Amino acid sequence: xxxxxxxxxxxxxxxxxxxxxxxxxxxxxxxxxxxxxxxxxxxxxxxxxxxxxxxxxxxxxxxxxxxxxxxxxxxxxxxxxxxxxxxxxxxxxxxxxxxxxxxxxxxxxxxxxxxxxxxxxxxxxxxxxxxxxxxxxxxxxxxxxxxxxxxxxxxxxxxxxxxxxxxxxxxxxxxxxxxxxxxxxxxxxxxxxxxxxxxxxxxxxxxxxxxxxxxxxxxxxxxxxxxxxxxxxxxxxxxxxxxxxxxxxxxxxxxxxxxxxxxxxxxxxxxxxxxxxxxxxxxxxxxxxxxxxxxxxxxxxxxxxxxxxxxxxxxxxxxxxxxxxxxxxxxxxxxxxxxxxxxxxxxxxxxxxxxxxxxxxxxxxxxxxxxxxxxxxxxxxxxxxxxxxxxxxxxxxxxxxxxxxxxxxxxxxxxxxxxxxxxxxxxxxxxxxxxxxxxxxxxxxxxxxxxxxxxxxxxxxxxxxxxxxxxxxxxxxxxxxxxxxxxxxxxxxxxxxxxxxxxxxxxxxxxxxxxxxxxxxxxxxxxxxxxxxxxxxxxxxxxxxxxxxxxxxxxxxxxxxxxxxxxxxxxxxxxxxxxxxxxxxxxxxxxxxxxxxxxxxxxxxxx
Length: 607
Description:
11-stranded mixed sheet; 23 helices
């Protein structure tokens, strides 16, 4: 028997002695028949538990969670000290109408002339159409929502007909889409659009309710045990602004994967390279935005599931502070690490969608006491001064722990541009015990997921899950109540470190992912795969925002030597969405001319 280990209290840690430890997840990469056989063995009563115990021992999970004294008290939900108000912002009324918030958000945006851009007068490089472009086209009669719908419908249907299937959407109804578009077109003809979002096409991830579509969570059975009778709260707010919903977007089953692989319906392909994964679990939302079919989409993010696919597909993905957006009406509303966030083709479009959908639930307002939601006033002179005063924290050893130096080099270039053009200061930081964070996260999200699914699994639905999900569930059911409490003690400990760092810096900068879009093994298309090396690289930088509930955003900054997108992640203080949006907009402007048109792209506004 080994001796127990004892951690010093976080307040007594010697920060000068902190050294970065590379994390290597020890688990086999399996696909095809061998993967199926492995899962069968894993689910066997005796030998399965022995395999799980061996894997946990190899990755030092039990050593940390069962043999280590963690002196901090558990933190079962993110808790934050009071935060200073953000400068140069506009405060939004989360109790007011979504349309009014969107109108205020519009006033925060810098001057822009959509007429000249639609005429092609001032752009010599690729750029996605903005929501303001669509709004101008509708108001001026250049296009109508019904016309755009007719451009979208055949593309969606074509993706579903491919063999093997590569659907963007799991649930799609062309007539329902035409009905929404016709209603929006009529409002424009009568001169009464509901907001700047009226007639804007969005996809909703399959774990968020969007009536009349079912919510399957990427499974083949969830709709059999859970009916959808109304929109999720955030979807309802967007609908009140005139948003047109194209359907329910594909995803990694139940959000339990980082690649987007889904044998149930087919795996969505990366628009930049059709032999590559989109990233997950919000695979369909990111791909449909990157391909130009929708201006924005909603995803969920419990372990990077908005930011990972946004980075791999070259678009913008915003993870809000935990509980900033009401989770009612989603499959993951009961957890402590998940949020619903927008994926968009530009930072300003993410701002517009975010302004409409935000608003904490009453229970979260009482328990978490969130700061008022704000947006950066990008049209004011004060915004530039605020930008120049930002201190950006960079943990170099962590920043450079990537699969290819193309990623760290491109992200470093973006930081240099911020320093040169705006005067931002890059401050070297250290972040203790990063290698312990992934254990705390997987036990938290795994235990909460297993608890929510356990009744259906006991009812026989478990065998209808994909082999990938069944592998995860085998691990999750091995966690004890003690493991879960230990993970929450680690959450408080790591929260202390971050709050100390945020006394010295305003935003922490990292690559979004440690690798660009991985190739899809042909043997993984039918039955899925498990590849923890890929999972480790994709989740390396994103987990901290989920475990601690912090806001973060991924913004594209360029490409690797294979032409695959690279994202920069900006991690903010609690409730600090305005600050990361301000910096993300600056990064986007500095990197705008390097953006490339995806190999699979559709101009639905002018086609």
